[in-house]
Amino acid sequence: MANEFVIKNGLISNGDSQVNGDFSVKGSVSSTKGSILGGYIRNLDAVTVSTTSADTSNVSVLKVNGTGVAESFNLADGISGQRLTIYGVGTFGRTTVNAVTGAGWSSFELSAVGNSLDLIYDTSVGWVILGNRGGTIS
Hints:
Layout: E1 46-49, E2 53-54, E3 61-67, E4 70-75, E5 83-91, E6 94-99, E7 107-110, E8 116-122, E9 126-133, E10 136-137
Parallel strand pairs: 1-3, 2-4, 3-5, 4-6
Antiparallel strand pairs: 5-8, 6-7, 7-10, 8-9
């Protein structure tokens, strides 16, 4: 590929570094002075939720796999700047997501495959809704 730069054994930068375009990491990113990466980056693998609780501390995507009966889980507080997408897959009855701290909302109901909710967490107000597709917010 033209303009491709591959690092195989690590990178140390003692000055400013900039990436224009896509940036992908398999592993971890650490910083001692802070990093701006266009938002909060966490594990991009989806975590399937089929219990009454969801650990959102290390994910950006929650796949809610309905069981065909009504169920619910609590959405714990996140980390400031954390982005989270929740969406429904599988067989659905009705699944209710109850925010521990929601900015103007307390629950979101998914009732069909493809219902989704996009969120960002702010420590002063809680989970802020950025987008909703097909779900019911209350």
